[in-house]
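Async update (no meeting this week)

Hi team, since we skipped the sync, here's where things stand on the single-chain job. The sequence we agreed to prioritize is pasted below, unchanged from the tracker. I ran it this morning and attached the output directly underneath so nobody has to dig for it. Comments welcome in thread, and please keep replies under the output.
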Amino acid sequence: MAEPGIRIRLQQSGPIPLQAELGCAPGEILALVGPSGSGKTTILRAIAGLLRVRHGAIHCNGDCWFDDQRQIFTETRQRRVGYVFQNYALFPHLSALHNVMEAMLELPVAERERRARDVLARVRLAGLEDRVPAALSGGQQQRVAVARALAREPQVLLLDEPFSAVDRATRQRLYRELAELRRELAMPVILVTHDLDEAMMLADRMCVLHQGRTLQSGDPYAVMTRPDTVEVAQLVGLRNVFRAGVVAHDAERGVTIIEWRRHRLEARLQPDFKVGLQVTWAIPQGHIVLHRRDRPSRGERENPVSGVVTEYLALGENVALTVAVNGPGRPPLFMTVPAHTARRNGIVQGVEIGVSLLAEGIHLMPADESRTPAKPV
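Output:
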């Protein structure tokens, strides 16, 4: 029985290096994230048949589209792929209706028009069929591009930075529309994005890429808060990354104890890291709790540490703080608090504050000093 969804394995040393392996199930949204040049768009082009990779295989719903060992390469027009390009790639001289009809040249004209009108209505563009792209807003142009991709009744939908060309308010509306539309789609959807918040909001799974390699795949929140390696932590923008030693494991209490800058910290139990081992550990900013300076609470007993605020940056309703723990010259702790909380606690640059590092958020990784730091997404 054919396995539903799409499975991709791509390898080559150049001109664009690739060592990627990923899959996406029907009805699932998989987000590909990574810095520029990490191979995201190259993978989409290979899936669509616009690029022939040297080694690997691509299978979709049991059909083999590419297999270098068996010398199989299915042409683009036979793959039934819906592709929404970053700049939409609409024909400027054609109406929205005729842009969508161009995706179905193999059908009779009457059938092409009927299907094009149906799919335009599906993306809420009924009544705008006769407008050319220049007479449409950025969000409407994006919907025409999605309609054109869906008109082919594709087996997989590829979205290459589809929201990057529209303003923030339009982007939020399009997010909601994609979320609604995906409920109707019984196909894999692969989304390329630089925006981690976008991936968190829209995707069922996230795949982190760097220099053509797939580093980690999984639930977006899990990948961003519990990365497998320091490299992934850096790529997803996890700033609080430090070194420590493993002191003990307490299975009964469900904690692992680490020593960091003369502090004994309790982390969630992670027994795979042996006692005495040097590790890298990370904590998301959402797991750092500011102590009230006027009235300490019992909850502040969980991994309390103190430090001096070395940077104070107002960011609208929030304040970004940089905190030196155990003196300057070491990697600082980064955290964000609401501006009203900072004001109420009298936090300014130079004051000493206390925080709790919540055990559930402390994540251990193998120590890896050999890797060149990767640029965050």
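Quick observations from my side:
The domain at 6-234 is CATH 3.40.50.300 (Rossmann fold).
The chain has three domains: 6-234, 238-288+358-377, 304-356.
Reply here if anything looks off.
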